[in-house]
Specification:
Layout lengths: L4 H20 L1 H8 L4 H17 L4 H16 L7 H17 L1 H4 L5 H24 L6 H29 L9
Length: 176
């Protein structure tokens, strides 16, 4: 399975969007609220957009890997982002298992995407809470907040995709 030039561009833009906002705005949101929601919101939007455009196994994982590299360049000590690297692979596997056509069609598609985004960011919360928070947060609550951020981001991501489908109707039926 090969990625085309437009696929690579969407993967790169999605990763850049996620990592730059994660490195600049997410720490401010965390400091102001102590809620791990904004980073998950960014993750879900980025992953849904890339999965919608590319519709190939590996696209979301590549977004996560590239976002991780960029995030480490921008914030070298932010090792917790590795939880999102894993979450990207989980999202990739879930959307592939569900089927891209099912995810991005009407009917249950938005709910399935929301479930995939919520589940993958919940995994990120579990990893970050267990490995990087040093026992300073209740793991169940912390991971649930991450999942909430993923749900909100999934809803926004689906909205972005729906808006793009109106402007780019030829992308609506692409199966790769």
């Amino acid at each position: 399975m090969r990625f085309r030039a437009d696929d690579a561009a969407v993967i790169a833009v999605s990763a850049a969007f996620w990592s730059v906002l994660n490195a600049t705005l997410a720490p401010l949101f965390w400091q102001a609220t102590r809620l791990p929601i904004f980073c998950d919101l960014l993750a879900a939007i980025s992953l849904i957009l890339a999965a919608w455009w590319v519709r190939k196994l590996g696209a979301a994982t590549l977004v996560g890997l590239l976002a991780t590299v960029l995030n480490f360049i921008l914030r070298p000590g932010a090792l917790h982002f590795l939880g999102f690297t894993v979450a990207s692979a989980v999202f990739d596997a879930l959307t592939r298992a569900i089927g891209y056509e099912r995810c991005f069609s009407g009917g249950a598609g938005p709910a399935l995407l929301a479930a995939a985004g919520t589940a993958s960011t919940w995994v990120a919360g579990l990893i970050i809470g267990a490995l990087f928070m040093g026992g300073s947060v209740p793991l169940t609550w912390f991971s649930a907040l991450h999942a909430l951020g993923g749900l909100l981001g999934s809803l926004l991501g689906v909205s972005v995709v729906k808006a793009l489908e109106k402007r780019l109707p030829q992308r609506g039926g692409k199966e790769g």
